[in-house]
Request: fold
Amino acid sequence: MSNVLVATHTDELRSDAAHKAAAHVASEHEAWVIWWGQMTRHYWAIPKRGPIHPAVEAVSPDELETRLREIEAWYGLGSGTAS
Reply:
């Protein structure tokens, strides 16, 4: 038996929902580039500019928002600002 990954309609719906969730988080945190990793099935963010910080990875949109808020608080940034 081969290890072939087969996409299903359910996978496509889940992916669409994940992309929409990432877009929603991005609208709340404009200082970040945010995306859904199709292969990792995780949410990712990197700052557009400002303090250098490694990529932020999370398994859910809520977890990503929590991490972004923590980083913004640490660096004294407000959501949507990229000083």
User: Anything to note?
Assistant: The radius of gyration is 15 Å.
